[in-house]
Write a structure and sequence with these properties.
Helix 3 runs parallel beside helix 4 (115-135). The protein is built from 7 helices and 6 strands. The termini are far apart. Strand 1 (47-50), helix 3 (65-93) and strand 2 (97-102) form a beta-alpha-beta unit. The protein has 225 residues and is of the alpha/beta class. Belongs to the short-chain dehydrogenases/reductases (SDR) family. GO terms for molecular function: oxidoreductase activity, acting on the CH-OH group of donors, NAD or NADP as acceptor; quinone binding. Keywords: Oxidoreductase.
Length: 225
């Protein structure tokens, strides 16, 4: 986690962003970070992206309660607390805003060995819809971005392996996604006025994984037309 976090901080600093890390499962740390972020920008914050998450993947029969709770606390509870606190400040300041929860295509599917992860993302999707109904009249949009298999530093070894090649062959678009090429457009849509009439939406960017009804076993298998 730390190498990935430090890499993100190095990318943000040259762009003028005042990066600050905090424990999203500790309320005191979260509240302090939200207040710092709000005050760092003249006029406050109007775009919030909740992108903290872990998996703790493994067979459900071997999954400990502690491991389950850790995923739910980081993936769901942390996103809720951050959203709530920024929304409070937006409302008090009379600001319109956009909250984007980074969910996963696994929120609508069943990922092997992913009980807590899938549960947390499914809950995040419904939290997104419910908060959208409450905050819409106050001028705050709440949406979720649900990526599928996107190549990152964490999963690059697996996705570039022979197993990864087979996994890619079962995706309707026959490839894994790229963060900058495939996610930035959807994220900017939700953050900007281009998506001004969107709220309560879960935007899936997964190459067709969730919408597919047939999974390829043979890499040479072709979809019927």
């Amino acid at each position: 986690m730390w190498p990935t976090l430090n890499k993100s901080l190095r990318r943000l600093r040259p762009r003028g962003a005042p990066p600050k890390w905090f424990h999203s499962t500790k309320d005191d740390s979260t509240l302090s970070a939200v207040e710092t972020a709000w005050n760092a920008f003249e006029g406050g914050v109007d775009i919030v992206v909740n992108n903290s998450g872990i998996g703790n993947l493994g067979p459900c029969l071997d999954l400990t309660t502690e491991a389950f709770d850790e995923v739910m606390n980081i993936n769901l509870r942390g996103a809720f607390v951050v959203s709530r606190e920024f929304a409070k400040r937006m409302v008090a300041a009379g600001k319109r805003g956009s909250i984007i929860n980074v969910s996963s295509a696994a929120g609508d599917g069943a990922l092997m060995w992913g009980v807590p992860y899938c549960a947390s993302k499914a809950a995040m999707n419904h939290m997104t819809r419910t908060m959208a109904r409450e905050l819409g009249p106050k001028g705050i949009r709440v949406n979720a971005l649900a990526p599928g298999y996107i190549i990152t530093d964490i999963n690059a070894t697996l996705l570039n392996s022979p197993m990864g090649e087979h996994m890619a062959s079962t995706i309707p678009l026959r490839k894994f996604g790229d963060i900058e090429k495939d996610l930035h457009g959807a994220l900017l849509l939700l953050a900007s006025d281009a998506g001004a009439y969107m709220t309560g939406s879960v935007v899936v960017v997964d190459g067709g994984v969730v919408s597919g009804t047939v999974t390829s076993i043979d890499p040479d298998w072709k979809d019927p037309i």
